[in-house]
């Protein structure tokens, strides 16, 4: 059973930066997609950024350039150990709960419904 523990959320003023982390355990995918998603109140969950087992990244079009996704992998298995999301120059519209999720590799860049496991989320609040 894959489990995630997200951290790094909090409150920041507009224009500031945050770095989210996600500790991963129980991983078992060989060809995988792991990523960050977010959901603001009253809105649907949306993909923020994903990275696969080949370290190929994808970003939501409006976030590319401000957000950077990266991962540390376990040495023996090459499974993701920690997932990061560096967020810069944050406007108030980026306020949301941010979630880690994972699924098979084809899930990268596709609907969040294709992700199999989800974290409980970390809240990011940006004040204008």
Keywords for this entry:
single chain; mainly beta; 128 residues; 4-stranded antiparallel β-sheet; 11 strands
Structural overview:
The protein is mostly beta strands. Strands 2, 4, 5, 6, 9, 10 and 11 form a seven-stranded mixed sheet that branches. A four-stranded antiparallel sheet has the order 1-3-8-7, with no helix packed on it. A hairpin with a 4-residue loop joins strand 5 and strand 6. The model has no long low-confidence stretch (mean pLDDT about 95).
Brief overview:
The chain is mainly beta and 128 residues long.
Average predicted confidence as pLDDT: 94
What's the main sheet like? 7 strands, mixed
Q: Which percent bin holds the helix content?
A: under 10%
Rg estimate, integer Å: 14 Å
- H and E string: EEEEEEEEEEE
Beta-strand residue percentage = over 45%
Which class best fits the helix and strand makeup?
Answer: mainly beta
User: What's the N-to-C terminus distance?
Assistant: 39 Å
Low-confidence stretches: none
What sort of overall outline do the alpha carbons produce when their principal axes are compared?
globular
**Beta strands, count:** 11
Number of helices: 0
SSE layout and pairing:
Layout (H helix, E strand, L loop, with lengths): L2 E5 L2 E4 L4 E8 L6 E8 L6 E7 L4 E3 L7 E7 L6 E8 L8 E9 L12 E2 L3 E6 L1
